[in-house]
Structure formats: C-alpha cells, structure tokens
From TrEMBL:
Keyword Transmembrane in annotation: yes
Signal sequence, start to end: none
Intracellular or extracellular location(s): Membrane
Membrane topology designation: Multi-pass membrane protein
Record GO terms (molecular function): ABC-type transporter activity
Keywords for this protein: Membrane, Transmembrane, Transmembrane helix
ABC transmembrane type-2 domain sequence ranges: 47-276
TM regions (residue ranges): 39-61, 81-102, 139-157, 163-186, 198-216, 251-269
Species per Swiss-Prot/TrEMBL record: freshwater metagenome
Full protein name: Unannotated protein
Length: 279
C-alpha cells in the first residue's frame, strides 16, 4: 500500500509538470535533496561540517594575532587597518569556498559513482535541475552557517569596523552558490578518487595567491591581473569591501562575477546530469 501511494504521488507530480517550461529538467522539488542531506548530517557528517567552521578561526588566531606584531598594520584602499582585520574577510570568503567545494565535489562524487544516489533519484519525478539545486542549496546552508558563526566570533574583536559588514553574510552565501554550481558540474567529469586530488591541487594555490593573507600588490602587475580574475580573489575583494566599508562601483562587479558564475554553473551542471542519467 505504501509503495502504491508513493508511485501514485510520483505520477501525479509528473503529470503536473506536463506542458510547463523545463518540464524535462525541473519538478519544483529541490527541497527533497536538502531533507536527505539534513538526515545524513544528523547521522554522521556533523563533525565534518563543524571542522569547516573551526579552520578559519584557527587561521585567524594563528596568523591574525600570532603574526600581527611582525607584520604591522596593513593598507586597504588607502585606509590603515590591523593585520587581523585585513585577513578576516579573506578567511570568511575562503571558508565559504571550501564548504561549497567539498560539498559539491567529494560528496557529490560518492553519490554519483558509489552510492548511485542520482540514478535512483532521477528515475523518479525529480529532474536534474532539482538535484542540482538541492545539492547546491545544502552547500548554501553550510556556507550561511559558516558565515554567521565566523561573524559572531570576529565582531566582538572589532574586526568588522563597518555596518556594511552585515552584508558579508549574504555575500558569503553568494560565493558558496557560485563555487558549488561550478564544482558539481566539474565533478561529473571525474572518474575516480585519484582525480579528486586535482581539486585540492587547485584550491591550495587559490588560497595562497588570491590575497587571503597578504595584499596582491606584492606581485608584478601582469600577475596581479591574472590573480584578480580568479574566483577566490573576486570573493575576497567582495567580502573585504563590505567588512571594511569600502563599497564602490567595483563591488558591483564582484557581485556580477558570481551571478554569471551561478547561472553558467547551473546550466552546465543540469546539462551534465541529464546527459549522464537521462539518456
């Protein structure tokens, strides 16, 4: 009886999609994926999520305060700020990237190739866009949690000197959205766990050279141009503008950068899931 009810429900959902735009790719039920992710989180993955919050706090404590007396004050858009205030937004942006990337790559890879989760889901009324948006939605919730927790930690230390800093929280969600959208599509091309090491190989230089811990002004101008085009450099610049209250026209460019990244990533991921599982 339960099985028949589930089948009837799936048929009813599929019938409601008939004639609607995107009926082949979207059923309007990405929340099902988020519910599943939450159950998995309660069961076993809560420690992994918690570690993603602790990591930037440890970096801030060790670098922001451990090296501050050696580095001295920093300059950002002509304003002199403490070294801790300089790296805090960079660590927040990096945390949003890491959470989104690990959710949309390692977790997605296991579900795709070992758990065969997507094969089962896409055999139901769910469409590939439901799956993509559900997985990405969970990554956004993770990014939002990191951002709020990090802000609660750093704000009492005076590291968020501007009221604009409150917008760093939705900015972190935007950053997570962009990285998760692209990361899930890229993961669909990976065939084994060894290839996942390329993710770490790419993320490490992004963290080291995107201006997280020091200003990119230290590099030659030609190299600065390349770095400024990187997504993490754009993310750090966006969060730093907001936390320091240095909002200008360039801030809108950073937002547009991630808007394009999100739209392109969603299209790319949906196309890949459909071609893999709905042949």
């Amino acid at each position: 009886m339960i099985l028949n009810a589930a089948v009837d429900s799936a048929i009813a959902i599929a019938e409601r999609r008939i004639g609607k735009p995107g009926e082949q790719v979207f059923a309007g039920r990405p929340y099902v994926m988020i519910q599943r992710a939450f159950l998995a989180f309660k069961g076993s993955s809560w420690f992994v999520v918690l570690s993603g919050f602790v990591e930037p706090v440890l970096y801030l404590a060790s670098f922001g305060y451990g090296l501050s007396s050696l580095v001295g004050p920093m300059t950002s858009s002509g304003d002199s700020i403490s070294y801790a205030a300089f790296i805090a937004p960079g660590l927040l942006a990096t945390s949003a990237m890491n959470g989104a990337i690990y959710d949309s790559t390692f977790n997605v890879f296991f579900k795709m190739h070992h758990g065969k989760v997507y094969n089962a889901m896409l055999a139901t009324s769910l469409g590939p866009l439901d799956v993509a948006m559900g997985e990405i939605g969970w990554a956004l919730l993770r990014g939002l949690t990191y951002a709020i927790g990090f802000m609660i930690v750093v704000a009492p230390f005076g590291l968020i000197p501007s009221i604009w800093g409150l917008l760093a929280i939705p900015a972190a969600v935007l950053i997570a959205f962009g990285f998760a959208s692209v990361g899930m599509g890229v993961t669909s091309y990976l065939k084994d766990f060894q290839q996942l090491e390329w993710i770490n190989f790419i993320m490490l230089p992004l963290f080291l050279f995107s201006g997280t811990l020091y200003s990119t002004d230290a590099f030659p101008r030609a190299l600065q141009i390349i770095i400024e085009a990187l997504p993490l450099a754009q993310a750090i610049a966006l969060v730093r503008d907001l936390t320091l209250g240095q909002v200008h026209l360039g801030t809108l460019w950073h937002i547009l950068y991630f808007a394009v990244m999100i739209v392109g990533g969603l299209f790319f991921t949906t196309h890949r899931l459909r071609s893999l599982f709905q042949k």
